[in-house]
Structures are given as C-alpha cells and as structure tokens.
Amino acid sequence: MNRFEGKVAIVTGGAKGIGAATSARLAAEGAAVYVVDIDAEAGGRLAAEIEGEARFVDCDVSRLDQWKALAVKVSAEHGRLDVLVSNAFANLLGRAHELEEADWDRTLDVTLKPTYLGVKTFAEQLAAARGSVVAVSSVHAHLSYPDFTAYAAAKGGLSALIRQLAAAYGPAVRCNSVAPGPILTTHWDGTPGPAREAEADRTIAGRLGEPEEVAAAIAFLASDEAGYITGVELPVDGGFLVRKR
Known about the structure:
Rossmann fold; 8 helices; 15% strand
C-alpha cells in the first residue's frame, strides 16, 4: 500500500516502541517521516534503518520553541504537513500525596501538552493539506490504578483534547486517538514472566499486543480510508477494556 505517497508526517516519541513502529509503517507506505524524539542514538539508528524516507529530529516536544524550530525545518524541506502522530509520553508513578510536583508536571508536559503544541504550531499546514492528527492515549484514560495519578490524568486529558480539536478544526483536519492496552515494548523489560502472563490474561486476546498492531491502527486513522472518522478513540487493547478482571 502507498496510502501516504507524497505526504509528510511527524511522529513524536518516534524513536522506540509504538512510535518506532508507526514511523516505519508510515515511511513504508510512502510518507516522508520526521522521527521526533530526544533519544538521538535510537532515533538516528531507526531513521537510517527504516525502509523509505525518514529523518531524525532531536526535539523536546514539551517546548514551544523547539516545535517552532521543527516547523521551520519541515517547511524548508517539504513545505507541508499531512500527518501529526502525537505519541511522546512520560510515566512517573505515585499516589497524589506521594508524587512530587515536578514529576506531575513532567508527566503532563510530555504526555498531554505536545498535542496542543503540535496543533498550535502546524494548524495552518494541516488544514491546507486536509490532514490528520492521531494521538496515542491509553486504556489508563478509562481504568484506574492507584499509582498512575499523573499518567491517567494526562491520558484522560489527551482523549478529551482530541475530541475538542476535532470539533475546532474540522472538517479541514481530522483528529482521532488510539487507546493501546498492554503492548510489548521496552517498558516491559525487567517485568517477570508471571506478571506479563497475568496482564495478558486480562485481555480477550489472551496475549500482549505488538507495537506494529498499534501502528496499523494509527496508519488507518491517518489515511484517507478513515476520511469519515473524526473525534473518536479506537481501543487497540485485545479487549482489555471489555474484559478487565
């Protein structure tokens, strides 16, 4: 498939996990992809390995000045933006009375704020291209665990923000989100086998998901095939939200 031939995409948090799989998927389908991350080693390696056109940009997506610098680069090199995938996140754990204010701020600054900053920066280009925004939310936007105070707040806010952006920028720009369940990324490194099995058993699918499966959903929502879909959140969770036990 070449659903993104001639189009330009930005993937934040694009160097690893779901972001890396999404960067690779969009590039393989013809997009010129900007892999945006602060992990220069992983990002540079991924951009070099990807099949298709990809380049790494070192960018702290919690900062407006760095978004503006990214916009200058994208405009100079391509003059357009068609797809914005907002995937960057931080997850600093702790109950409200235990969580440091700096950890709360960092989690929201990296997980929630970049979608606002990205649209703020690229709204005109996205509208001109009749483009698409896809944010990576989480099942944590809908289910509560004691230590995920800031992360759940950020992901819940992200889900609501996407609906607001869809209303504000449609019909020129479509805005949707995905809500991954337990996805087997490097964040599971060090997690014992029995804990992984217990989490997999909480899904209908009976297994952990793969980053490529989330990337496939993101690519669909970003493509013209989803042209009549906006303001929605698509769970990619193996039935985790349906069968939580």
